[in-house]
Design brief:
Distance between the termini: 42 Å
Oligomer: single chain
Order of helices and strands: HHH
Number of domains: 1
Structural class: mainly alpha
Radius of gyration: 18 Å
Strand content: under 5%
Number of helices: 3
């Protein structure tokens, strides 16, 4: 468990990632939704400054990025009936 200022936590995460090379991170909460609000408002900006969190994302939908396909399924696809 890490605690401290956003900079201290970001420094510790950066060191841990460099030393162990994990491919992800589970973030537990102490209080909902405040724990996640604090991560978003305090830790994410610090990790962005460390270049460990993206400052911007490439354009396009998740489907386009994941499959290299169109943003929407074709009209003949069964999922097309569920568009809104």
């Amino acid at each position: 468990m890490l605690s401290g200022s956003p900079r201290t936590v970001a420094d510790a995460l950066e060191h841990w990632f460099d030393a162990t090379g994990p491919d992800g991170l589970d973030v537990p909460y102490l209080t909902l939704p405040d724990s996640y609000r604090q991560i978003a408002s305090l830790l994410v900006p610090e990790l962005t400054r460390h270049r460990r969190y993206p400052g911007a994302y490439a354009p396009g939908s998740f489907r386009e990025k994941l499959f290299g396909a169109a943003a929407r399924v074709p009209d003949h696809h069964i999922a097309a009936q569920y568009r809104w």
